[in-house]
Design brief:
The protein has eleven helices and 14 strands. By secondary structure, it is of the alpha/beta class. The radius of gyration is 20 Å and the shape is globular.
Length: 347
């Protein structure tokens, strides 16, 4: 049985980890930290876990995380890089759900997250947590920087078009028009996510620049083997969970005769958590609510020179905690779907 520690168990990604791991056949949560809620039973804060999680929050200082086999950091940016080294030195694997180990360029990290990176040697070692791209590297890794929620949807949506240097679409004019539910902002008091502010409303944000932009471009450029440029515009929608990404790609002359439906179906045929929808489909966010599956549909309106790729995922599951459990399974040689065979909730 894998002994799991969770640093920062009171946020949305933390409680989602607890929910998923409560049913995992080969993992047991042995420690959950929270400075503010130390001593409180997890199930007291989250009654949905009553009878499933019988453990109390403890302060990081009082918690023996070094006795764990793997530690998840479901914390604000900057926490994991301060604690990862001492865990790695005693053989504990580290999975960070924040951004500390996503961007390979320390200067880019400092620019977008307003802090200097404190362990650039570990940053160079960290493997990016997107299984559909880095599965083999993840299996042998001891430190994972999980993919962000928006970047997961956009990279999966463009993967078949760019992988291996394919020249099917223009790589300097890509557009990702993305929408997310309010849980993506985290479990904190903030005016913009108050019910009276976010309900019955729809707005764009981060149009001048968003911290997920360099992550997406970094990932796509590595997938393609050459620089890729993308315009990314996120939006906040009045729902709790879900991401819907609409991606636009201009077809090059070399790609005019490609069967894109077949291309996507073949690329993801063996992927347990990517579902390519039938031709003409428009996937809905509610079809993935609570599940670890990303659903993708590819359209070519009028058989013209523009591809429209639709991607939906649950931002807390495939976009965060579920994908993290998927990565843990790979790191420990478990079936990739262990603890993740969840039918999404509907309605």
């Amino acid at each position: 049985m894998i002994k799991v520690g969770i640093v920062g168990g009171t946020g949305y990604t933390g409680v989602e980890l607890l929910r998923l791991l409560a049913n995992h056949p080969s993992a047991k949560v042995t420690a959950v930290t929270s400075r503010k809620e130390a001593g409180m039973k997890v199930a007291e804060m989250f009654p949905s876990l009553r009878g499933r999680v019988d453990i109390a929050f403890s302060t990081p200082d009082e918690t023996d995380l070094q006795a764990c086999d793997v530690v998840f950091f479901a914390t604000p940016h900057g926490v994991a890089m301060a604690q990862a080294r001492e865990l790695l030195e005693v053989g504990v694997k580290v999975i960070d759900l924040a951004a500390d180990f996503r961007l390979k360029d320390p200067a880019e990290f400092a620019k977008w997250y307003a802090m200097e990176h404190s362990c650039t040697d570990l940053l160079a070692e960290a493997v990016y947590g997107l299984p559909e791209v880095n599965r083999d590297a993840i299996k042998n890794a001891r430190l994972i920087g999980m993919a962000g929620c928006y970047p997961t949807s956009v990279q999966l949506g463009l993967l078949p078009l760019l992988e291996g240097g394919k020249q099917y679409v223009e790589t300097t004019t890509l557009i990702a028009d993305c929408k997310s539910g309010v849980s993506g902002a985290g479990r904190k008091a903030e005016v913009g996510t108050l019910f009276a502010e976010s309900a019955d409303n729809f707005k764009a944000y981060g149009v001048k620049g968003h911290r997920h932009s360099p992550e997406i471009e970094q990932g796509l450029s590595l997938i393609h083997g050459a620089p890729v440029k993308l315009t990314f515009v996120p939006h906040l929608t009045p729902m709790i969970r879900g991401i819907h990404s609409t991606i636009y790609a201009r077809i090059k002359p070399e790609g005019r005769d490609v069967d894109y439906q077949q291309l996507f179906e073949q690329r993801f045929a063996a992927e347990p958590f990517v579902d390519v929808m039938p031709a003409g489909s428009c996937p809905e966010t509610r079809s993935v609510r609570g599940g670890n599956t990303a659903r993708i549909a590819v359209h070519r309106p009028g058989n013209g020179d523009l591809l429209v790729i639709l991607v939906v995922e649950d931002n807390l599951v495939k976009g965060a905690s579920g994908q993290s459990v998927q990565v843990m399974n790979l790191m420990f040689g478990l079936p990739e779907n262990a603890g993740l065979d969840i039918v999404p909730l509907l309605p």
